Amino acid sequence: MNYKKVKEHLAKKEEAVKKVIDFLGVEYSYEEMMTEMAIAQTIIMQLMDIANSAGHKQSMEEIATFFSTIQCLLINIQDLSDFAKLENQEED
Fold first, then answer.
1. What is the pLDDT of residue 57?
2. How many domains does the chain have?
3. Which of 39, 63, 84, 88 is 20 to 30 A distant from 30 in Cα terms?
4. Which domain holds residue 67?
5. 14: in domain
6. Residue 68 scores a pLDDT above 70
7. What Cα–Cα distance (Å) separates residue 90 from each residue in 5, 63, 78, 79?
């Protein structure tokens, strides 16, 4: 990669991180998002049991994989959530 592409790539990453920090700092707390995700996963697991008993397996597994991916993402951005809290406290 040349310097210009690297610079553009880093700028895109910085913008994405800024958006995540803004979202975490304003919309919901990290704990609220994880609670909502746990509730959603519980409901999905119940739906999967119902779907499996009716013979519909593949679609529900894809949905469960989607929620697991989102939860992994949330776990990995916990540090950004802490940073967003600090930024909000500094603004007050």
1. 66
2. 1
3. 63
4. 20-91
5. no
6. yes
7. 34, 39, 19, 17
